[in-house]
Amino acid sequence: MAGEMSFTRVLIANRGEIAQRIHRGCRKLGLESVAVFSDADRDAPFVAEADHAVCIGGAAPSDSYLNVEAILEAARATGAGAVHPGYGFLSENAGFAAAVEAAGLVFIGPEPDAIARMGSKIEAKAAAEAAGVPVLPGYRGEDQSAARLLEEARALGTPFLVKASAGGGGRGMRLVTDLGEAPEAIASARAEAQGAFGDPAVFLERYAPRARHVEVQVLGDTHGTVLHLGDRDCSLQRNHQKLIEEAPAADLPETVRDDMRAAAVRLAQAIGYRSAGTVEYLYDPARGEYYFLEMNTRLQVEHPVTEAITGIDLVEWQLRIARGEPLTLAQSDVQFDGHAIEIRIAAESPAEDFRPETGQITLWAPPAGVRLDTGVEAGSVVSHHYDSMIAKLIVHAPDRAGAIRQAVAAMDAFAVGGVGLNLAYQRALLLHPDFQTFRHHTSGLPEMFPDGWTHPTPDPRDMALAAIALHLHLAPAAAGASPWESLGSWRLTAPAGRPGAASYWDTTNDDPIRVTGSGTIFAAVPPGGQTVTVETAALTGDRLSGRIDGVPFARIAHVERARDHWRVHLQTSAGMTAADLRTLEDQHLQRATGGSDGADLLSAPMPGAVAEVRVAPGDRVEAGDTLVVLEAMKLLQSLPAPVAGVVTEIYCAPGDTVAGHVPLIKLDPEENT
Hints:
Dna Ligase, domain 1; 5 domains; eight-stranded antiparallel sheet; Biotin_COase_C; plasmid; Biotin_BS
C-alpha cells in the first residue's frame, strides 16, 4: 500500500473509551466516524458521539464486536471506506485485517502478514533474533512432543516459563521452579492455549525474576520510514495485566535505553511495519540486560503517555499513514518533554480479590485539569460482558515526582458512585516506596502488599464530617425552614427551644453518630471519638466547608442514595473515601426487612454467567468451599460457601445468566444439622 488511499468515513470496530478516542482523531482530520455497538451498548456515550451508528448484535462479544461479517456489513451499509480496530477484540487478528482489505476497505493498522508474524510468539522471537534484538534463552522449536519439551526444560534449567505461542495476557503461561512440576505445567499450558487461542503450541524461556517491563513505541509509514517515539515502563502488573504506565521509563541506563530504541526500529524495518506498534522488552536490572518479549501490532492502551511527552497524536498519524501519507518527521524532530503517568481505572474491588463491579454509575465526578479518556458518564451501565477497564487518567509534569503528585491529587478529587473502582488501590501503588524508588517489577505486588491490601475507610473525625454533610444534605431546614419541610432524620426539637438533632449509623457499627446544632454551627460525636464542631458549616454543590477550631477547610463531599442507606464520598487525607450511613428511618426499615441476605444463602455478587456448579443437593460443605463459578468481565469468580452446612436447594445451572444479588444456593447451616 504505497499509494494514496482515499476515505472520508471510518468505521470504529470497538467500544468504550478507545472508540471515543478514535472518534476524536477522525474529527481532527475532518473524517466522519461510524460506531458499531452491541445491544448492551445502545445508550453508551461512544455511540452518541459518532456521526453514524449501527447495532451489530447481542451483548456477548462473539455476537457483536468479534462478529467479522456483521462489522463488514455495517461498513458497507454506512459507506465507510476504512476500519480502525482500536485495541483488544479483533485488533491483532490477521484474518480480520485481511477480510477488511478483501472487502475493498482500508485497514488502519499494519499489513495482515505483519500481524500474523508477530502474533506467533515463536515467529516473532525468530524475527527479533534475525534483526539482532536480544531474546531470552529457551526453546522455540517445531517439535512439540512432550518428550522434546521436557528434554529442553532440563537443559534450560529452572526457573523457566512455559508460554503459549499464540497467547497473551498471561493465558497459557506457567512458571516452573521445580523440574518435577514441568510435565504438569507443560500439559496445562498446552490445554489452556488450545482452549483460548485454538493453538496448543508452546515455547520455553528463561524466567527473569524482578524484571521490569519496558516498551518502545514505533511509527512506520508505507514509504519505508520507521521512527521510535521513546519508551515506557509498564512494570506494575497483576496477572500480567498492566495497571500503571509511565513515559519515559525511569531509572534506565541511557546506553540500554538507546539500544532498546534502536533495536525496536530495526525489527519494525525488518518486517516492513506500517502504522503505530510497540516492541516490548523485559529489562533485568541485576544483569543490566534487556530481552525481546513481543511486538504489539496495534495502538496500545498506554499510548496517551507517549503523546503527552512527545506532543505527537498517534491516532492522527495512524489515519494519515493509512491514507498513504509519508511521515513528515525525522527522528531528530521527536523531542521528549517531562514525565507522564497513566492510571487504568477499572470497575473492580481490589480489597475483595479484585472482584468485578457491575451496575449503573450513579455519580461521575472526575477531576478537572487532567486528561481523562473514558467511555462512561453518569447513568452509564457497566456490563459484565466486557473488560472492567472503563477509563484512563493521564497526567503530565516536568518530572516523575511531580507526575506522581499530580496523579494522586487527581485521584483524591475523583468521586464515583454506584460502581466501585480501583482508584484507591492505584493511589496506594503510586505512593508505595517500591514504586517511588524503582524497586517495583512485573511480579512485585505480593512484595508490596504481603498481607494483602485493605481499602481505606474514614477515621472517626472523617465519619463525623460525613455525618454533618449528610445532615446538611437531608435538612435544608437548617437555614431556617420548618423541620416539617425537611427530609430525612431531623427531629422536632427546635420548637421546644433545643437545637435540631439527629442520629446516623455507620452501616458497620451499631453505635450512632449524634449530630446537633442549627444555623451554621454543628457538632458531631462519633463512637469512640472526640466531638467535632464545625462553624460556618455549609454544603454547597459537592463541597463541604466551614471552620474547625478556627481553621477553615473545604472538602469534596458528594452525597448519594445507595440501595438501603446513604453514601457520602468524602475527600480525606487518605484519598477519596466512602462513608455508608443510615438514618433512623433506614435503621427501622433495615430491622423490618430483616437486613441483607441471610447467612444460609449464597447470592451472586454481580450479574454474570454461571460457568460451574460444584455441588449437588445433600452435599456437605465447609465455609469457604467453592460452590459456584461465575464468569463476569472475562474473569472467572469462585463464589465460596458463606457458612458450613448442607446444600438444600440450587437455583442455577451452568450456562444460566443471572442478575446481581439473586440467590444461587441455599444451605442448611451446620448448627442446624
